[in-house]
Amino acid sequence: MFTENALDMLKYGRRLGVKTGDRQATTIFDFGFRDKRTASLEADVRWVWRCFSLEALAGTQELPNDREHCEGLQAPSEGLWYLALAKSSTTRQFVAAQGQTPVDCLEYLSLDPDDDVRCIVAASSRCPGHVFEALAGDKTAKVRRQVAANPACQPPVLYRLSLDSDYSVRLNVANNPSSSASAVRLLSEENDAYIRFGVACHRHADWQMLHMLACDQSHLVRQGVAGNHNTSSATMSILAKDTELSVRQLAAHSVSISASALRSLHGDDNLYVRRALASNEASGREALELLSQDQDMLVRYLCVTNLNCSARLLAQLAQDTDVHIRRAVARSEETPKEAFQILAHDKDVLTRLWVARNENTTAEVLEVLAADEHLGVRQAAAENESTPWAALETLAQDQDIYIRRGVAANSPASQKVLSSLAQDTDHFVRTLVAANETAPLNALRLLSYDESAAVRCRVAGNRNTHPQVLHYLAQDKDECVKIQVARNPFAPLVALRILACDPDPYVRLLIAKLKYTPDDVKQRLANDHDPWVRRAALRHTMSNTL
Asked: Whole-angstrom Cα distance, residue 458 to residue 422?
């Protein structure tokens, strides 16, 4: 981050020599706002102007007025050595902070008499190793602190700094990911709790050290041990009985916790500990069966989303009194046949809708849902690839045209006739044209602006629809239209990227299951807040890798 003077140098120094209408800026000697600048700043401007003189005299580029854009500008590397010889400390700080400053120039600035210049050099990721060694013995503590906090610093230098007399230096070493195991072990004996907390969280802390810190008097240190992936199961058993709530909660989240420690946490009085257990993939089926009887709805919900949830437990939770639990069971890919049969008659419409959408729903259950009283449920059953022909025949006779268009086969027609019918006043006719794969592109483009969502839905699902039209429909306000775009194998990648950010979880689920979804989109969906979207993205990413 530049200082105020350094930004002023960059802002006004590059404007020198540019002829403007301002009388104060008519020559290279008339620096802007001279009366408001100190003599030191005027010296800084002179040095920076010499660095930028060629570009400034050309008059081809003007600096922005705001400081945010000034910070992003970089000086030409050939002029940085010239600036490093400036008498002004601010100018030398400017050089040390540049990302393209030569390494030998940084070495020169590491000997600078000004503490701030040496601090900036010590914080640079491009600083060479021998310079780190020299700055580690600097007489000024704040310079050594910057060396100790720099991840680019070598482990031997950090070990040396772990013996430093300054508290902040040792604290920075404890928090530096590049610190060696020997340095971390040395700092584990510190009297300060914050240093020991840094050790407890460190990636190079071994299990013996963490076992010792698990009995630390500071709950902050014990929290660090409970959250460390290197902590052994035996140590987690100790932390599972900790008096501090936050420690027990972190232990309940750990994947390395033993079965005996998990059993000791099942009866915990704290709600958050039980929720952590229900979401932990290390929890076995026996543990989840106990947690499924919890009074808290979220504990039972997390049991459903847990990968270790058994089919028997899902069948049991299909009769839960809370509608959110039943909806979660309806979405699960592990739900057994008997649970689907129960949920197909659920009084909640959204529960039946998720059953109709589930690809693992049995054929006989889909036949029941094909006669559902709700339009959305029947439509979902018509679009489900697992729906049997008997159910599709029933849906083809449905009085609602939205259901019939979902299963009806359109007879081929000439493009001229289809173009004419695309402007028909009858909604059902336009729907049939939109679903016809022989329809001309101009007709489909016209129907993509139709006021009826059902018409746009068929355009979105038509394999002959132009990718540009699918890109437009991916931003449609209707959920069904976006679902059809996601299912269209010819949808462009830009449309898939838009749908991957859709607020509806079912749309994101479809994108996560596609084989041709870009890898960066799959990675983002692997961190989705919806558990089924995450699971689908991770499963398909792993299958593509294998």
From this structure: 12
